[in-house]
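Postdoc handover notes: sequence design on the structure in folder B. Input tokens:
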């Protein structure tokens, strides 16, 4: 499947599917207390947020969004059913290609201690750690991914 068929801009009709995706990743990769934050994020109809579709099923969601003159990967999550399938790699490749195309040379990532190793595979490095930063036993790892333009 080509990337153009895999990635689609988020729209409000996808809210329930994205919330189900969040629930499938909680509490392993997201703290339960983050659910309302994610719902609020979706309700803001964020420009630049995308879903990943396989066989018409939402299996991932992510965004490369600008915050205060800095770009960040926001609310990236994948269905546990896709682990090891290469979808995560396709998401990161899409993010990196988008960054290159837009002249973005640095991406911030606010990961957890569980997801940080995934981002490290693509060259992201930890710059700060906050114990229990996302909730009890969910440590926040702030990372930076430098993009070679």
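Designed sequence:
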């Amino acid at each position: 499947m080509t990337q153009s068929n895999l990635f689609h801009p988020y729209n409000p009709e996808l809210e329930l599917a994205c919330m189900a995706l969040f629930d499938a990743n909680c509490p392993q990769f997201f703290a339960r207390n983050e659910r309302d934050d994610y719902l609020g994020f979706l309700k803001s109809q964020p420009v630049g947020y995308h879903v990943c579709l396989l066989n018409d099923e939402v299996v991932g969601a992510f965004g490369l969004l600008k915050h205060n003159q800095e770009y960040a990967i926001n609310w990236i999550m994948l269905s546990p059913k896709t682990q090891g399938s290469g979808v995560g790699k396709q998401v990161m490749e899409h993010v990196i290609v988008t960054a290159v195309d837009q002249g973005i040379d640095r991406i911030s990532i606010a990961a957890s201690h569980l997801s940080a190793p995934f981002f490290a595979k693509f060259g992201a490095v930890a710059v700060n750690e906050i114990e229990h930063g996302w909730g009890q036993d969910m440590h926040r790892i702030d990372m930076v991914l430098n993009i070679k333009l």
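Context for whoever picks this up: The radius of gyration is 14 Å. Don't rerun without checking with the PI first.
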